[in-house]
Amino acid sequence: MKNLDVVFIDVGDFCQTFSLAWKKYLISSGIKQRNKLSCLSR
Question: How far is Cα 3 from Cα 7, in angstroms, rounded to an integer?
Fold first, then answer.
């Protein structure tokens, strides 16, 4: 069960890092994208 916890932590860390990098990319490139929360992120 500990391995599953590690996988979820790694995925969560990746998502946070990717999200920040993606937002910086969109700002620097001038691409406009709607920032709508999904049902899962509430």
Answer: 6
In angstroms, what CA-CA distances link 28 with 16, 17, 24, 37? 19, 17, 6, 22
> For the segment 10-36, what is each residue's pLDDT rounded down to a tens digit?
999 999 999 999 889 888 888 777 767
Please give the biggest Cα pair distance in the chain: 43
Q: Do the Cβ atoms of 33 and 26 come closer than 8 Å? A: yes
d(CA 4, CA 8): 6
